Amino acid sequence: MWLTPDYLIDGDITDIPLERLKADGIAGLILDLDSTLVAPRSGELTEEVAGWLRKARSLFKMAIVSNNRREPYLQQVQSLVDMPTIGRAAKPRRRGFRQALEILQLQPQEVAVVGDRPLTDVLGGQRAHMKTVLVWPLKTMNEPAWKTFFRKLERRFIKS
């Protein structure tokens, strides 16, 4: 069913069971950037996320696909995480996901898209025929109450 992720994580990116993904045949991860990997506009990794990335890098090929349009910011993040970063992806369109597949040299069924938004990350990954992982925004982030309300509403819709 559309918008229902293959993996619904009750936590942020650091709570993803990497060994389970690997056991399920996943060889690559396409990561969302803002709220999933870093706090929006921060360009900084928390220690938890940096540790998770080190572990994930030992198991998977990885790339970032983001709707962010700010080129200097995307270049900053790319050098920080040392992985291919595709901006201006216009998710849920497939173009950015296809570019990442070419870079990773993997087939869609070998890749999981990790993100915090059903309408961009999950839908985009599904449209590109990839597995999808829905996470909450980073634990260290402080979002406005209205945004948290809508995220919870999205999850309720997905679970039903």
Could you characterize what this model shows?
This protein is α/β, with parallel strands linked by helices and 160 residues long. It has a single domain (7-159), classed as Rossmann fold. The chain is built from six helices and six strands; from the N terminus they run βαβαβαβαβαβα. A six-stranded parallel β-sheet has the order 1-6-5-2-3-4, sandwiched between helices. It is globular and about 40 Å long. The model has no long low-confidence stretch (mean pLDDT 91).
What would a concise description of this structure say?
With 160 residues, the chain is an alpha/beta fold. It contains six helices and six strands, in the order βαβαβαβαβαβα.
Total domains: 1
The CATH class is Alpha Beta
Low-confidence stretches: none
Spatial strand arrangement across the major sheet: 1-6-5-2-3-4
Approximate strand percentage: 5-15%
Total helices: the number is 6
The CATH topology annotation reads as Rossmann fold
List SSEs in N-to-C order: EHEHEHEHEHEH
Q: What's the number of extended β-strand segments?
A: 6
Q: Assign an overall shape.
A: globular
What's the CATH H-level superfamily name?
Answer: HAD superfamily/HAD-like
Q: In which range does the helix fraction lie? A: 40-55%
Assembly context of the chains: single chain
**Between the first and last Cα atoms, what is the distance in angstroms?**
11 Å
Overall mean pLDDT? 91
- The CATH architecture can be named as 3-Layer(aba) Sandwich
Report on the biggest sheet.
6 strands, parallel
Determine the structural class based on helices, strands and strand pairing: alpha/beta
- Computed Rg: 14 Å
